[in-house]
Amino acid sequence: MATAAAHRTAGTEPGEAAHPAASSARTAEQQTAFDEAVAADERIEPRDWMPDAYRATLVRQIAQHAHSEIIGMQPEANWITRAPSLRRKAILMAKVQDEAGHGLYLYSAAETLGTSREELLDKLHSGRQKYSSIFNYPTLTWADVGAIGWLVDGAAITNQVPLCRCSYGPYARAMVRVCKEESFHQRQGYESLLALSRGTEAQHEMAQDAVDRWWWPSLMMFGPPDDESSHSEQSMTWKIKRHSNDELRQRFVDICVPQAESLGLTLPDPDLAWNEARGHYDFGPIDWTEFWDVLKGNGPCNDQRITQRRRAHEEGAWVREAAAAHAAKHGKATA
Ligand SMILES: [Fe+2]
Ligand SMILES: [Fe+2]
After folding, report:
1. Fewer CB within a 10 Å sphere, N or C end of the chain?
2. Ligand nearest to the CA of 154
3. By C-alpha distance, which of 233, 272, 266, 242 is closest to 254?
4. Relative to the alpha carbon of 76, which ligand is closest?
5. CA neighbours closer than 13 Å in the CB half-sphere of residue 141
6. For the chain, give me the number of helices (H) and strands (E)?
7. What is the pLDDT of residue 14?
8. Which of the ligands is closest to the CA of residue 183?
9. Lowest pLDDT segment from 14-23, 65-74, 278-287, 296-305
10. Exposed/middle/buried for 215, CB within 10 Å: 0-12, 13-18, 19+?
11. 326 Cα: distance to centroid of ligand 1 (angstroms)
12. Where is region (Disordered) located (predicted)?
């Protein structure tokens, strides 16, 4: 931790006089130290003073991210029992378990901001906090597992690599580990789609159909266009976000087009074309009506996902109780 940290670490000590004028001068000093630390690319750590709105933004973003990891287990878990070979089954089980692990790192990161996991899960189950809308689409065929790995995990990496430099230390560090695993997920999806694309005619068609269905929702994963994104600007100032939604979406398109060519598959957008002047691929308009509709709860699987999540939580109550009882017993024994 850098030298500026000393000024921003200490809060009001017990017994310290809480004179209103003194305390507002102290807050101004802490705000300055915080701003300087962010400007100098230093990390903000859990014990450091931070503005309430910064804390609230992080809790909202990390919670949504954590929820997406665990809800995201459902569409792919749907195919574990029907994986076409033992090898594919082992890979898919490992991937789905990784996503549970990502959820755990992220709920832990949120806990460092003073929010309990129970509280966040309760908000997810009661619909007061959201998860990524991409997981409200169904996985209709085995090829969807490949398309999700390639496109959905691919989009997640594009979003998350810059988060490794996020100003909040615990979130940034969680992202380093998550990104390493996500890149494996992306590659296994690509490899699985490649096998299908080069397989029989029916397998090739199945791969193409999956890409046709997942392409546009993947582009929507980057969130609304910059001019409609309510949280973006402040998050950029705080260095929680490093790039805008549209920048990241463009980066993703530029990565995917040559990969689709190598896969021997087409992307379902007649407007996709290399733009020499911009040095990027142009792409067609996104159907934002669909995005807002799914976000409001009207996607094909919204109800199913949250019902299954609530049921899993209720059915897992005995595991949490047993773990707590074991920890209490163990604690007593060591004492
Ligand atoms: Fe993940
Ligand atoms: Fe993943």
Report:
1. C
2. 2
3. 272
4. 2
5. 18
6. 15, 2
7. 47
8. 2
9. 14-23
10. buried
11. 29
12. 1-34
Residue 178 CA, ligand 1 centroid: distance in Å:
6
Ligand nearest to the CA of 102: 1
Q: Provide the strand spans (E) within the chain.
A: 273-275, 280-282
- Per residue in 260-297, pLDDT (tens digit) is 999 999 999 999 999 999 999 999 999 999 999 998 88
Per residue in 158-204, pLDDT (tens digit) is 999 999 999 999 999 999 999 999 999 999 999 999 999 999 999 99
Give me ligand 2 centre to Cα 103, in Å.
Answer: 11
Comparison of pLDDT for 5 and 194, the residue scoring more: 194
**Ligand with an atom nearest the CA of residue 182:** 2
Residue partners of 184: CB distance under 8 A and separation at least 6? 95, 98
Which residues are within 5 Å of ligand 2 (an ion), measured at CB? 153, 182, 185
Mapping DSSP onto H, E and C, the string for 172-186 reads HHHHHHHHHHHHHHH
Ligand number nearest CA of 153 is 2
Task: Quote the tokens at residue 219.
Answer: 């582009």
* Residues belonging to the chain: 335
